[in-house]
Amino acid sequence: MANDTSIAWTDYTINAGRGCTKVSPGCDYCYSERDDQRWGNTFTTIRPRPKAFADMFALSRKVARERPGDTARVFLNSMTDTFHPAYSADYTAELMTVMALTPNLTYQVLTKRHARLRAFLTNVDWLRARMSNVASTYARQRPDLDDITRHVYDLPYPLSNVHFGVSAESQEYAHRRIPKLLAAPAGRRFVSIEPMLGPVDLETFGWLGGECGECQSGTVGFDEGTCLACSGAGRRPGLDWVILGGESGFGTGYRPVELEWMRDVVAQCREAGVAVFVKQLGTAQARRLGLRDFKGEGMSEWPADLDDLRVREFPVPVTLHAPSTPQLTK
Ligand code: SF4
Fold first, then answer.
1. What is the mean predicted confidence (pLDDT) over 69-78?
2. For atom 6 of ligand 1, which residue has the closest CA?
């Protein structure tokens, strides 16, 4: 089932698997591991959960019913890593197919397996063929889906309702992961700098994209490579969205973020016209400031001198990838 969530930058979470293995310092206090331990599960055993596919269709119908013409954000696999090597390429392709068939949901897929993400998304011919096969199978099994499954092979690629992101807890991991993300086709690309473990420079390396080659605007923003100020093209691909957050946790399970690190990234995004979302200050700062919310997430209790961090923006929406595609309504 889709879950309502306290994660401020999304509306729902759906997990098509559980379990993971740690790959970098950002994983040290993984909340998914804590959750698995609480339930007596072995975290390092990867457990695909194909029931999630039915959950995605169900949520798509619910959103269509309750908010016709609107979209909802879904953080896919908040408790595992979609590109963990234990998930087969076929499984991930089925996940992509269901995302294609539920275009009124905007999926946010975040990974620390940047190399596998790139390899998977750039294998376009195989992926489209595989998605078409999966859609055909669905059409045979579910006659009510037939109208939309036959559209899958014709959909523009990449899917505009699927946003891919990488985690970058430090400059080192920004260097490792962001260039791989930018080299992969994606509807939107984002980075999650959470838990923020050090200063991160995005601008110097061109990861926030470049100025419009025609009007030199670097502050208005771009949609699908088109400058929103002059409608010209000429920007190199960059991140569409940056999420920032300090680490939250209990006991000694959190590391402090410096507010100046966050301020610096917000300023870089402002300068480049890239959407930025400050999720939380983290437990160390929440304690220092005497906040009630242990994550430092409730902006209303932040002191006035943090006004410049009170920013929660989303990337420019993308037109649904198949406007003529019939929507499931039941
Ligand atoms: S990649 Fe994510 S889910 Fe996996 S161990 Fe690291 S923090 Fe946890």
1. 96
2. 27
The domain spans of the chain are 3-18+28-202+239-309
Q: Helix 124-141 and helix 89-100: axis angle, to 10°?
A: 70
User: Atom of ligand 1 at shortest distance to CA of 20?
Assistant: 4
Tokens of 152: 């899958």
pTM of the model: 0.89
Q: Kindly give the distance from the C-alpha atom of residue 325 to the centroid of ligand 1, in angstroms, as a whole number.
A: 35
> Probe ligand 1: pick from 13, 20, 36, 42, max atoms within 8 Å of CB?
20
Q: Does residue 42 contact residue 21 with C-beta atoms inside 8 Å?
A: no
Q: In 231-265, which positions are buried (b, 16+ CB within 10 angstroms) versus exposed (e)?
A: ebebbebbbbbbbbbbbbbeeeebbbbebebbebb
Question: How far apart are the CA of 312 and the centre of ligand 1, in A?
Answer: 24
Cβ < 6 Å from ligand 1: which residues?
A: 20, 22-23, 27, 30, 32, 80-81, 112
**Mind listing the pLDDT tens digit for each residue in 251-276?**
888 999 999 999 999 999 999 889 99
Question: Is the four-CA dihedral 49, 35, 163, 105 of positive or negative sign?
Answer: positive
Query: For residue 31, which atom of ligand 1 is closest to its CA?
Result: 8
Instruction: Express each pLDDT in 81-132 by its tens digit.
Output: 999 999 999 999 999 999 999 999 999 999 999 999 999 999 999 999 999 8
Q: How far is the centre of ligand 1, averaged over its atoms, from the C-alpha of 326 (Å)?
A: 36
| Cα 22 to middle of ligand 1, angstroms | 6
Taking only the tens place, the pLDDT of each residue in 218-240 is: 444 555 556 666 666 555 568 99
Residue 238's pLDDT is 86
Residue 236: the pLDDT is 59
* 52 CB neighbour count, 10 Å cutoff: 18
- Alpha-carbon distance 145 to 133, whole Å? 14
Structure-model confidence comparison of residues 231 and 307, the more confident one: 307
> Residue 81 C-alpha to ligand 1 middle, in angstroms?
6
Q: Which residues contact 211 (CB under 8 A, 6 or more apart)?
A: 217, 218, 235
